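Researcher: Structure prediction, please.
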Amino acid sequence: MKSRFILLFTFSIFLFSSCNYFNGYKIDGNITNANGIKVYLEDITDINAVTIDTATITNNTFELNNYSTNGIYRLRLGEDMSKSIFLYLEKKDNIKISADLNDLENYKVEGSKGSASIRQLNKDVKKYFSALDTAAFKIQNAPTTMKDSLIRDFNKTKDSYIQFLKSFIEKEPNNEVACFALNYLGDFKAEEITYIIDIVRKLHATSPDSKLIGLWYAETQKYQQQIEAQNKGGIALNTQAPNIILENPNGDTIQLNDLKGNIVLLDFWASWCGPCRQENPNVVKVYNQYHAKGFEIFSVSLDQRKDKWVEAIKKDGLIWKNHGSDLQGWSSAPAQTYQVQAIPATFLLDKKGNVIAKDLRGDELEAKLKQIFTEETSK
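Model: Predicted structure follows.
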C-alpha cells in the first residue's frame, strides 16, 4: 500500500511538472559576439517594463523557460535598449533565435508566427524611415527653387509609409501584433488619430481580454472624448477669433489683432512635435507664395524651453516675424482659450479676424489660399 502511494505521488508530480513545462514558453538563443552579456525578457505592456526572466549568454547561447500570458515582449541584450528584439509569446511556444550582436537587425526567429511578423515589420519600417530621413535632409539643404518638388516627394513617401502600415495592421491575423504595429506610426499618430481610434475599437471588439489592446482602447477613448469636446466647444467657424497677446523670442509683445486686414493662419505648434515639424515646409511654401498678396502667419509655440523653440524656428526657416509663446506647454493661455487638444492645430482667419477654416494642412491649405486670393483678384 505504501509503495503504491509513493508511485501515485511520484506520478502526480510528473504530471504537474509536465503540464507546467508544456504550458510555458521556451526560448533558445544563439547570439554571437555576446558572451557574458545578460539577457532580459521584459513585459512591455505597461509604461514601465517588467523583467520576467533573465539568463546569461555562455558559449554564444542562452535559454529561457518560464510562464507568461500571451502578448508582446522585449528581449533585451545587455543594458543598451537599442539591442532589443520584440517577440510575441504564447504558451507552448518553442522559439529559436539566432543573431550577431553587432548586426542585431538581421536576427532570425523560428517557432512563432507573431514574432516572425514583427521581425518582417521592423525590416520594412527601417527602409521607409531611411527614405523619409533622406527626403527630409534633402529639403533642409536644397535651394528654395527645388523645395516644392522635394516636399511633394517627402509627402509621397510619407503617404506610402502610412498606407503600408495600415495594410499590415488590417491584414495581420494576430490582433496584438496588429495593435503593436500602431507604435510605428510614430510622429504621424496625431494626424492619423481618427484611424487609430477606429482600428483599436475593432481590435478590442474581437480581443476584449487582451491587456495591450485594452490599454490602447482606454487611451483612444480619451482622445475620442477630447475630439468630441473640441468639436462641441472651441472656436466655432464664422466667429471672431479671440485676441492673443504674447512675447516673441526677443521679448517684444505681439498681438493677433494687429494682423487684421490680412488673411492670417493662426498656427499652434512646438519644436518637439514631429507632425508640426514635418508640416512646416508646407507652411513656409504657402507663406512665400501668398505673403506679398496679404497673407500672414501668427505662430503660437507650446514649447517650454526657449532655446528649443528658437532653434526650431531657425532650423525650419520660419521667416515670418509673428512668433509667440508663454513657454507653458499645454497650459499655454492661448491653447486653453482655443481649446487646442492636439498639434499641429490651425485656424484660418479672414481680414476681419473671423475663423473661416480649421486644421488645414498641406494641399488643403494651399488650395484654400489659392481660392481666397483668386476670388479677391476677380473682384
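Model: The chain has three domains: 20-111, 116-232, 245-378.
Researcher: Thanks, that helps.
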